[in-house]
Predict the 3D structure of the following.
Amino acid sequence: MSAKNTGTVKFRLDSKKLPTLPKKKLDALRKLKDDEIDYSDIPPQTNVKWTRPGALVPTENKRQITLRLDADVVSFFKKTGKRYQSRINAALREYVNAQKKVS
């Protein structure tokens, strides 16, 4: 994984080039009433608990520790961008899961 390819999609809205709709479509949207909106292609979501992206492991399960890692390992993960510590954790989790399958 390189520093430029972290799997994160970034989008910046350029205030000088805002996306626009043709006047005809914009007028049609303004006239549309809530009960006229077609939701048939959206599955119903009941009893759904929304979480932050990346909140895969509850914070109460995490412990702050001091860990010595080789400089090149830390450098590699830091080059992958923000949240590099979460990626280190994910790599360690993969190792743990592989060891569980072996035993």
